[in-house]
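Researcher: Go.
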Amino acid sequence: MLFKDYTVDKFILELSSDAPSPGGGSTAALVAALSSSLNSMVYSLTIGKKVFEKLSDNEKNKMVKLQEEAKEFIKKAQNFMEQDRDDFLSLMDSYKLPKNNEEEIIIRKEKIKENTMKAMKTPLLLAEECIKFYDNIEFAIKHGNKNLISDGGVATVLLHSAIESSIINVKVNLNFLKEEEFCEEIENKCKSILNISYVKKCNLMNEVENIIYPKKI
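Model: Structure:
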């Protein structure tokens, strides 16, 4: 059964159970989907309203386009949920391979490495996709219905959380690949993504705070 067909209750129950999946990776992708959904809501309650008519033609066209991109990102995040589950289950199957002789040991070792690579790359790709989505949220905060700016703020916080969570899942798999030449490159990429995300989140949240709870002069 695909995650997108789960009820909220079913997902939460399975997440809290002893089932091997869903886990942190699929949850990170779900949080990314929730961020995009919330941002799309800002557009839905802006497009066609009075505030929308006050925008320039270019801004109107861009908002419509960005909402479509937000909807596509939701689907992409849902696909990451499935991919993470598949990667994890494949990795667990690798550890169950026989190791009764030298040949089996070599095959098992290679399969574990192969599937660890996959389990590491999926959350990294998710984090990279999430970074791109900040621009979408920024536009919603700047040009969307001002009564929904707090929702844009929540979308921002959720996006950063999805990125942080994804990087955790990158690192837990990268730990088993420390002997590989690419390890340092991936580690540096993770640091860069986290730093960029933190700065973007803080900048957007400053904008949100100034609107929803301005400081007294």
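Model: The helical segments are 8-16, 24-44, 50-53, 57-95, 102-143, 149-174, 183-212.
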